[in-house]
Design brief:
Helices cover 31% and strands 17% of the residues. By secondary structure, it is α/β, with parallel strands linked by helices.
Length: 537
């Protein structure tokens, strides 16, 4: 018998290894398919499994605006807890959630918060602007519809139902968290090593609720531009409508046309004046106002005829200046007591986001008049009052009608001893040009957080304020930053975020530090485009 050549043996061996690897890969794939499909068997009358299927590495839509993200191979699982009809067209009740379980799991779990009034089920990918998604990083990620499915994130009709209110307020977060963790343990054969919650707007409120009401469930939470005191935000929206309606020109039927209360030129003049007066307070004129507390701008300086006021159609009438001061000062009762909080003057007033929130345009009413009105009527008032006139809200008498919803919904708790004692960490961030959320309401809450020492709650909770950033992103700001890495490093490595590097499309080629409140970034000299030229002080 002829002995096989060394090359032939090598070829046969390599081929065998290759076939073995292919067989192993096929077995792994089949195993993933089988493990994922097996989750379908969990359906019961109180738990409806809608989807359990393997998704290959691909690009998928991450948001309704068409934004896509690359995702790894994973198991996609969707289900509804306690599904039930509502009796209202295009509206159903039950806690819907989506859980994505990556084939290469890093042992971590992320709850992705919702937005608006929820009512939709967003892809559970943990997308972060400009950075890899949590799913791509190996996290198992869950999202929830908040306990109802409606026409979109502005559909407030669910508020007529007691359980749907409770679900949106907090129970959907609690029940989804526990069900997702149970499924993760079943699927992988072990519990998550670390659990995180990250969200913005309503997702930010939910993140704060997770730390306040589920202190044993999460190791780290990130709350961005949180609607944490939603009932007072909605009261403040009624305030804005009443203030601006007083100065708005009337249409042919005598109704106030808010879109004409201020021209774009006037709003741009306000933003320009703020920058001229306050930009250099941090040591550098760069279009970003960091030291907002030292900024003493007032719109009365732009009243037509005032020395230094802009000429022509860019100056303000006295009534316009007073109205702006009232909007930025926030809702008050007849005794002058603040019912919500104040807003810093910033560049965001000249953005489309500010106009869309407060004024509207091209015949479209502002969000204050649509989302604010319906949220007030259906959800914030108890009992619901679908015909309530937002312009008739009485800031003395009607506040009591919001307290029942505030008790279940608002994430205003400041007592976090259990969460902090077991090593929990919290990052809260907020855009100083947020068109809807008050800065002072959030800083006042932060300054009451416990546990704390002489320097505040910095050992376990930090607040970052982003100049120029509108609600959850946008504006003339460095609005791209990786808060997931920041909270993960703090929780798992013990390195607190003393500064977070940010960039943004509004300032191409530049980076800036985000500083923990009450510090602000100050220019120390050097390259003004480099965040290392700034100190947090």
């Amino acid at each position: 018998m002829k002995r096989a050549s060394f090359g032939a043996v090598l070829y046969v061996t390599a081929a065998a290894s290759l076939f073995a690897a292919v067989d192993a890969a096929r077995a792994d794939e089949e195993s993933l398919d089988e493990r994922c499909a097996a989750l379908k068997a969990l359906s019961s009358p109180a738990f409806t499994v809608e989807t359990a299927e393997r998704v290959p590495a691909s690009q998928i839509a991450a948001r309704a605006d068409g934004t896509t993200v690359e995702v790894p191979e994973h198991c996609l699982f969707r289900a509804v807890i306690d599904a039930r009809p509502s009796g209202i067209e295009d509206l159903s009740y039950g806690i819907g959630f989506e859980l994505r379980l990556p084939a290469e799991w890093n042992g971590r779990f992320l709850f992705q918060g919702g937005g608006g009034l929820n009512g939709v089920l967003n892809p559970a990918v943990g997308a972060i602007a400009g950075f890899p998604s949590a799913l791509t990083r190996g996290f198992a990620v869950v999202s929830s519809d908040g306990g109802h499915r409606g026409r979109g994130i502005t559909d407030a009709r669910f508020g007529v139902d007691q359980q749907a209110r409770l679900d949106f307020a907090y129970q959907a977060v609690e029940r989804t968290t526990r069900k997702a963790k149970s499924l993760i343990e079943r699927y992988y054969g072990r519990k998550p090593e670390y659990s995180y919650f990250m969200g913005c707007s309503t997702g930010g409120r939910e993140a704060m609720l997770a730390a306040q009401r589920l202190p044993l469930e999460f190791d780290g939470v990130v709350a961005g531009n949180p609607t944490f005191n939603l009932t007072r935000i909605v009261v403040n929206q009624a305030w804005n409508m009443q203030v601006l309606s007083r100065i708005a020109p009337r249409d042919a039927e005598g109704r106030p046309d808010l879109s004409r209360a201020f021209t774009d030129a006037q709003l741009e003049a306000v933003a320009t004046a703020v920058v001229e007066r306050c930009d250099a307070l941090d040591g550098l004129r760069d279009g970003i106002v960091y030291d907002y507390k030292a900024c003493d701008f007032h719109p009365k300086s732009l009243i037509c005829g005032t020395p230094g006021a802009p000429a022509g159609d860019r100056c303000l009438t006295e009534a316009q200046a007073e109205a702006l001061a009232d909007v930025f000062g926030g809702a008050r009762n007849s005794r002058g007591e603040s019912l919500y909080g104040t807003y810093p003057y910033d560049t965001g007033i000249a953005t489309p986001a500010w106009r869309s929130m407060h004024l509207g345009s091209n015949g479209r009413p502002p969000a204050d008049a649509i989302l604010g009105r319906d949220t007030l009527r259906y959800y914030v008032l108890t009992p619901p009052d679908p015909e309530f006139d937002q312009l008739a809200f009485d800031f003395d008498r009607d506040l009591d009608r919001t307290t029942a919803t505030a008790a279940i919904n608002d994430a205003v708790g400041t007592f976090h001893t259990t969460f902090a004692a077991r090593g929990g960490k919290m990052i809260v961030y907020h855009g100083l040009s947020d068109q809807g959320m008050s800065t002072s309401a959030l800083t006042d809450w932060y300054e009451r957080l416990t546990p704390r020492n002489d320097s505040g709650p910095h050992a376990w909770a930090r607040l970052f304020l982003i100049p120029g950033m509108t609600h959850c992103g946008g504006g003339k700001a460095t609005d791209e930053f990786d808060m997931l890495s920041a909270i993960q490093t703090w929780v798992e490595d013990g390195r607190a975020p003393d500064r977070i590097v940010a960039s943004g499309k509004a300032f191409p080629g530049q980076t800036r530090p985000l500083c923990p409140y009450p510090q602000v970034a100050r220019f120390e000299g050097g390259d003004p485009a480099d965040e290392r030229s700034f100190v947090c002080r």
